[in-house]
Amino acid sequence: MKVAVTGGAGFIGSHLTDYLLKAGYEVHILDNFSSGHYYHDHPNVIVHEVDIRSERAQAIIAEEKPEFVFHLAAQADVTRSINNPCEDADININGTINILEGCRKAKVKKIIFSSTSAVYGNLQKATIDEQDHTAPISYYGLSKLSAEKYIQLYQELYGLDFTILRYGNVYGPRQTAKGEGGVIAVFMDRIKEGSCLKIHGDGKQTRDFVFVEDVVDANIAAMKNDRNDIFHVSTNKPTSIIQLAEILLELHPDSLETMHVTSRTGDIKHSCLLNGKCCEQLGWMPKYSISEGLKRTYHYYNS
Ligand code: NAD
């Protein structure tokens, strides 16, 4: 079976591509390599170095006619979205519309979209479910939410099926210090350099950290689900930045120092996503605890 992965050269997309190739799919990667890398050298992978906003990207999907399109390519950096909202909207909204047009023309069976907890903004709630009010506080959150709305409207107007997966903070091997959820990758870089871990604000801000292999499993589970719906891909467990640092201190044999610096604009204070709907309806469960996932990530960066 033929599938397309936009952003297949990126952190999450490359792991998803690994899985799909191992499972025997023909995988078309559409990526402009703005933050991605060449990870794949496999007879069943076809890499199209292309911008998702281009006519060529739309034509590739329209002509190749993949059954499923996993749409991950994005501008995924919150700070960059604040500094350059036009570029962020262009990639995340116009780029998505362009991919949707390709899907519509190709009569793609389903688009599976990587979305984010950033669509909720700073909700004053300990836990969030998919019905909660969306109120992004960054242009990135807003552009991803807009992309979701376009995907839903394409379903209503053209019957293009979708699954929207809103991720917590994804982490794991190959993540770079840029982009969303990057704190773990930043810490890994600093450990390698032997420098101290910088914690923004008081470090009590929490995130729902989900390991990249669990995110891949959710994308695969979404292929089999016939509902057009939104699901959280998360662990239900908040972890503070201070807790992260403590786990890393245990893993790292040498001493590690931490230092507090000013908090960042657009940063959400707490984010913990309930994943019950995804578990029930997609038959998915996260397999990795934060300790196990961090251990694997630590060993990847230090091997
Ligand atoms: P990433 O930056 O590693 O991957 C994005 C990929 O998209 C890169 O390979 C990049 O080269 C490509 N890309 C960017 N702009 C492009 C364009 N205009 N045309 C073609 N390709 C382009 O990011 P990631 O962390 O792997 O994120 C993947 C998806 O998951 C994104 O949609 C992101 O919004 C979403 N997401 C990520 C997280 C996280 O914690 N990493 C959390 C929530 C949602």
TrEMBL record:
Residue ranges of every copy of the NAD-dependent epimerase/dehydratase domain listed in the record: 3-230
Pfam family, one: Epimerase
InterPro entries: Epimerase_deHydtase, NAD(P)-bd_dom_sf
Superkingdom of origin: Bacteria
SUPFAM superfamilies reported for this sequence: NAD(P)-binding Rossmann-fold domains (SSF51735)
Coiled-coil portions: none
Family stated for the protein in its record: Belongs to the NAD(P)-dependent epimerase/dehydratase family.
Name of the protein in its database record: NAD-dependent epimerase/dehydratase family protein
Provenance organism: Niallia taxi
